[in-house]
Each structure stands twice: as C-alpha cells, then as structure tokens.
Fold each of these.
Amino acid sequence: MNPSARIGRGVVLACLLASSISLSGCYPAHAVAPADRVVRVTSLPRGATVVTVKRQTYHYHHGRFYQRQRGAYVSVKAPLGAVVTTLPRHRTVVRVNGQRRYVANGVYYRAERQRGRTVYVVVRR
C-alpha cells in the first residue's frame, strides 16, 4: 500500500473519531460523565423517562435526572420524592436505621410497592 494512502486513511479515521466524540447528544457522554458533574445535552438519552415531583418535570436515565433549561437538558440534583422504576446498574445496598437503602452516585433510594410493582423513591438517607 502506498504510504500516503495510509496517512490519508489515518487522517480520515482520526477525524471520524474526533467528530463522534464531540457530539453532544451522543449516548456515551451520558454514560461516562461523573454524577457530580453538570451535563448539558441537546437531546435526552434513549430510554429516558418522565418523572414529576411537586409539579416539576424531570427526565430520568440510569441514575441521572435532567431538567429542560434554555433549549437544552441539564443534569440536576436528584429530587427528593422522585419515583423511578429502575436503578443504575452500579449501586450498593446499605442499612440505614435498620432499613434497606440502595445508593447510586451518592443518591439514596428506598424500595416500595406501588400498584403491584417495585419502585424506588429518592430519599435523604
């Protein structure tokens, strides 16, 4: 193969890689950002669900809560009382005052039954 053809392919691959990393709505950006870092995206990750707490609308995806602000979605602190149907994959089980709690990214959840199914409520501890 011609050496200049190899360089050309390398440049094209590098450009493709760089452009895919910079896409703000790209799923991996949601998956790898630390929970304490504010994330601003133009579109929600696939599978995000709507959660309403005290008349405020949030969007939940894998342990991260978002709110719409100025044409984008910004990650926000988990609202107390939010009810979600799934927990992040990386969570731990702890006991608080003898009660089982799930902790993920510094957020505490309490499992409870609602309408015949298990849901998880964001709690202080």
Amino acid sequence: MRIYREGERPPGIPRAVGLGFFDGIHLGHQELLRTLSHMAGLRGLPSCLFTFDRHPAEIVPGRPVPARISGEEDRHRAVARCGIDEMVMQPFDAAFAGMPAETFLEDILSETLQARLIVVGHDYRFGRNRAGTADTLVAFGAARGIEVRVIEPVAIGGVILSSTAIRDFLATGAVDRASEWLGRPFVLEGVVQGGQGLGRRLGFPTANFPVPPGRVLPAFGVYATRTMVRGRSYPSVTNVGMRPTVNPQAYRDPSPASVPLVETRLLDVDLDLYGEPIRVEFLGRIREERRFDGLEALRDQVLLDTASAAAFHGAEERAILLDTVSGIPVVLLRSRRFSASVCEIHFKVPLDRVRAAEYALLTRVLGSCCRRFPRRSDLSAHLDSLYGAELSTDFSRNGDLQQLVFEMDALT
C-alpha cells in the first residue's frame, strides 16, 4: 500500500475513494474498506483511503478528544489487510477544518483525487462546521456521474459497532470483547527502555516501554498477551499500570508527568530487547493492578500470574503469526482437542496458462518423491512410520492466481 503524507500528491488518475478517520479500523470500518477494494477492482480502479493524520477533535474547538485505539503502524497494517492500494494522510489543521464542503468536493475529491467511485459510512460528515453529509455526497455524485456507495452500520448481537464502545470495553479490561469488535487483538507498541532492572533481580526480566501519548489504555492490571519481537511472536504476560508496589507515590497521587508503563515478560525465552521496537497483543485479563506488601509478596504474585498466562496460552485456540521467513508469514494454530498435527504451506502465483501445467506437475512430483526416497511408495512408507504421517498436495485456481498447497499431517 502506498502512503501519501504531507506535501505528497497522489498521481492524477481516476480512482475509487473511501472517506473517514477510522480510529481502530474495527469490523465496521473493515466492511467499508473491503467494499471499496472489491468495487474498485470490478471497475479497474485503484482503491484509495483519504483520511487524516490526527483526529479532527484535536483541532476543532468544543469537541472532546478521544484517546486513539490504534497507533499509526497498526492502523496502516489494518488498512492494507483490507486490500487498499493507496492511503492519503491529509494534515488536519485549522485551515482544512475551515474548508467549505463545496470546496472539498471540487478541489479534493474531483480535482486532486479524480474520484469515480466514493464509499462512505452512513454518518460521514465533512467540511466547515461538518456541513457536508452522506446525502451531500450522493447529490454531488449524481450531478457529476460519480458513483457513491453509502455503507450502513454493522452490528454484532444487535449492537452497532463503534470506536466508543471499544474504548469502553478496554476501560473495563475486557480486551477479549474489544478484540472481537476490532477483528484482531488490541495492540500497544513501543521501544523497550532501560529501567531499574528490578524484574531481572527478582527472577522475571521484563521489556518495558511507556504508554504512547494519546493512546487508549486497557484497565490497569495483568494480561495474557503475545509479543511480536524481530518479526516473531512469543507468548507473554504483561502488566499495564503505575507499579504501585515499587512506585507508591505515583500510584496514590498521579501527576501529569506520571506515565503508565507496559511491562512484558516473554514466557519462552529471555532476550536482550533494550532499544528495540516491540508490539504487544492483549488477549485476556488475568487480574487488576494492586499494591503488595513488599517485593517478596510481589514476586510470589508474579509467579502466579506467569502460571495463569501459561495456562491461558496452553488452552488458546487462535491462529497466530509465529514468524516471518524470507518475507513469508508462518502462522500457527494450536489445539489440544485433537491428536494430530497439521502443517500447510500455500503458494499463490500469477496464473499463466503456459506454466500452469508445469506448476501442477511440479506439485505432484514434490509430493511424491525426493532424493532420499525416489519412489512414491518408499516415501509413503517412510512417512507412515513417522506417527502415521502423510503428505498430500493440491493445486487450484483462485481468481487470477494459481494456488499450490502442500499439507503434512501426523498423529501426536
């Protein structure tokens, strides 16, 4: 996805345009973005999200500024996963806030973006004093021959999805509910900073970073998490809060200078992460934050929290990005409900009629023999001796791509 920032102008070509700030990129936003991507593809247009570098409430007086659900990188990743080709990050300043709705339609949508298709939510507003509405866009499109699609609200269990509701979930520590509405785990990101080294002295080293300014926080407490480090994901346990046992003054009388801290312990490995960026995904709450009578009591509780987090991860059934090898994601789905392990490798290549038969033949050969076992019967017998293992292959068409699948399964 190509991102255009301040001072950068997208190419002057016709495109399909989505409009909105989309804090969190929750399932309702994703419905709009995927509709934009799909409709743009059918019309042979690049899909473009026109959005802002900050929430408009930060500039418009009289409106409360909501804490942001997503950091910039998480927001960009979520938009790209919806298949969007371009993202225009418009600086939202006083001059832009004062732009009349008619000027936005003419100068931005028509001239700069050359919109041929516009996709917006039902409650979209734009222009000075939020004078423009979705109906304004529909009328503008009808007069200019521009197709306009208005997306109706998306509901889960009869409740309309909203960024406000997700903030409310997080405020109570219900990170699982927030993740359900986001369509992915809630994430906090930061660069690991050096601290007092207290965790390592107590036997549980942690990677710490301050909560990014302006970000929404889950309720203070301890959570089962996954932490992405150097492109790999590790099960972890994380505390978010003011560390009342070791920093009681900040806990009792927090000042504007008191910044909550994210403290994460990787369960499987001890890595030196000082100065490195990490991403923490929140999966479930273990307990609230509380003050203990001394470091020994704190240490005992951390051991219990670690055991609770390990049990959570052991019972978890969730597809996770385990690692990235040569740019290829490796996804793991664990389950204790079955006595088998399965490994699938998917390749998707541009469909070429000349080479399609070659790829299909190669898939069969790779699934039938190898240097050590040149005959299919030898390979099958060897795999069967390995806990009843079996290798199968498949090739099919997926749109304009050819999909090759290798699957290995075995009893465990």
